[in-house]
Amino acid sequence: VEGAQPGDVLKVTLHKVEMGDWGWTAIIPGFGFLADEFDEPWLKTFELGKD
Length: 51
What we know:
Number of helices: 0
Largest sheet: 2 strands, antiparallel
Shape: flat
Order of helices and strands: EE
Strand content: 15-25%
Strand order of the largest sheet: 1-2
């Protein structure tokens, strides 16, 4: 953003969001907020409703 400085705030407005048919979440050992809490990787996929 032209003229932006460190510490400035950028406001973004989303006018429309379209989701896909599925999503996922995962635990990756050594990565993220709980990096040291999990020894084994884990993956979960799930279907998303259109509602």
